[in-house]
Design a protein that fits this description.
single chain, 71 residues, mainly alpha
Length: 71
C-alpha cells in the first residue's frame, strides 16, 4: 500500500542523504527532509545563524542534485 511506498521512498532518501560527503549537508538535509524541521529549528540545533542555514541548504540541495539527479 501507500504506506509501504512511502517507507521505501523515505529509506531511499535517507540513504542518498547519508551518501553525501559533507557532514553538514547530511545533518541539514536529514533534519529538513526526514524530520521535517523548520530552518529556525535546524539553525538552533546546529548552532548556525539562520542566514547561514538557508545558504547551506541551497548548497546542500545543489550537491544532492549533482550527485543523484544528473546522469
Amino acid at each position: 500500500g501507500l504506506g509501504d511506498v512511502y517507507k521505501r521512498q523515505k529509506h531511499k532518501i535517507i540513504n542518498q542523504i547519508q551518501g553525501l560527503d559533507n557532514p553538514n549537508y547530511i545533518k541539514l538535509l536529514f533534519k529538513r527532509y526526514v524530520e521535517f524541521k523548520k530552518f529556525e529549528e535546524i539553525a538552533f540545533e546546529l548552532n548556525f545563524t539562520y542566514q547561514y542555514t538557508i545558504e547551506l541548504h541551497g548548497y546542500a540541495l545543489k550537491e544532492f542534485e549533482k550527485t543523484y539527479l544528473t546522469q
